[in-house]
UniProtKB/TrEMBL annotation:
Family in the record: Belongs to the FGGY kinase family.
Pathways per UniProt: Polyol metabolism; glycerol degradation via glycerol kinase pathway; sn-glycerol 3-phosphate from glycerol: step 1/1
Residue ranges of every copy of the Carbohydrate kinase FGGY C-terminal domain listed in the record: 280-470
Key word Transferase present: yes
Domain Carbohydrate kinase FGGY N-terminal: 16-270
Keyword presence, Nucleotide-binding: yes
EC number: 2.7.1.30
Coiled-coil positions: none
Name the UniProt record assigns to this protein: glycerol kinase
Species assigned in the record: Salmo salar
Enzyme class: transferase
GO molecular function, one term: kinase activity
InterPro entries: ATPase_NBD, Carb_kinase_FGGY, Carb_kinase_FGGY_CS, FGGY_C, FGGY_N, GK1-3_metazoan-type, Glycerol_kin
Gene name as annotated: LOC106586902
Amino acid sequence: MSTASYSERITMEPLVAAIDQGTSSTRFLVFNSKTAELLSHHQVGIKQSFPKEGWVEEDPKEILQSVYECMERTCEKLGQLNIDISNIKAVGVTNQRETTLVWDKETGEPLYNAIVWLDLRTQSTVERLINSTPGKNKNHLKHKTGLPISTYFSAVKLRWLMDNVEEVAEAVMTHRAMFGTVDSWLIWCLTGGKSGGVHVTDVTNASRTMLFNIHTLDWDPELCKYFDVPMEILPQVKSSSEIYGSVNSGSLAGVPISGCLGDQSAALVGQMCFQDGQAKNTYGTGCFLLRNTGIKPVMSDHGLLTTLAFKLGKDSPAYYALEGSVAIAGAVVRWLKDNLGIIQSSAEIEKLAGDVGSSYGCYFVPAFSGLYAPYWEPSARGIICGLTQFTNRSHLAFAALEAVCFQTREILEAMNQDYGVPLSQLQVDGGMTSNRLLMQLQADVLCIPVVKPSMSETTALGAAMAAGAAEGVGVWSLTPGNLTTIPTDTYQPLINPEESEFRYARWKKAVQKAMNWETTEPITNGNGAITNGNGAITNGNGAITNGNGAITNGNGAITNGNGAITNGNGHP
């Protein structure tokens, strides 16, 4: 078939676009709504800044500018392919979740940088909040939010901004402040900003703030009071698939924005996990395993989060998911490149690790931002152990890839326990899945097949599907019979389960060594037995449970009782 007749055929079919605003880059992608084929895209990197240890920020204006640039460049590329951009019938938005912004609704200016989900500056706030709960329990709000009190979620970041940034406090006082996660900021700006922009979010993004009640599907007055957040600064919560407004300027002016999903929920939709029990793991900056639990929220006893999977239409039911979150996955490769300089590009890690085929007893726990699921231990820090004179950079690269796989296994085991039915195969997506060694290692570590779609852009696809299916757009059918089947590659486990178990047990041992490294406030007048500060930690479990029974993490995952020592040190 000639290119001309191909593009003529394309011009007949409706297209749907997606903005995919991630932690490390922004992309704009255009799909054929009938075949789910990716026609064109453009990507722009996003700078992260680390003003202090543990702080991670991004510039909201740079994020917005990158979106405009990706949209315009993609439209140019479509023009070169003779594809008429007037065929783009809708735009969906998917985004890094939890990342927190506050802006002035009158000037349209951000009042501070975006505080990224990985950021740890709120650790002392989190400790103070946990210590003030009955029984010093990090799960105090879980019955409403599905989440532990943690540095990860937006409410504590927003609290920090209101407490520490004069411009934010003043804008809140004078009723000019708007709070939002990245989706809200982008949709507000794209639909007109200070001149009539729409201030909205969807249920999946709202469910990551700690201010949202996952049962009522709205902001919770009690939660807002708990964090002392005025409800007037919050966006309106909508479903994940409805027309929120239209693009206000540029090549796509007038096109409806009609899909919005946090990146992990979007990947669940893009992997077609619409049925109760289906699951996917996304390998990006972090690693996120979500399992659809149907229209009822399942509360975890093993350190997983209960979150909104999607709500595909105003009158459609909300679906829930269990989620395991790993803070550092692709970020460990970036660290090996940027901080240690042992690789020049992220793609090199596969060859470097493949040269040795084993870590030879070296284990790498990349707890740069503490440990997320299933431990929720903010005091943990990164550790590399099992080093010998034989260890070289190839072994370190291999250990880094293995770390991603071991962390996924920890989450998968917790999920199997919570859900009751073990997963028989794992659907995967995200940037790191192009690393074939990693995918094979993952199958070996899990002892189940790993299934990767040939089109890896499932996050953007999910946002496009939600946008195209919205009432008033109606160009993408999500009924099971009409879903496009996407070809896949399957990786089967190749090592024996005994070897896999041995390596996993050593990993668990390394994780324990990473625990309780950092305490944020000096421990002086603590709980008697802990007055000697970190000494008590090294002398084992006894002193730590000292009166703080309930604090040892509620996860059952922390066997050595060192769970949440930082929360039990009698801080104010």
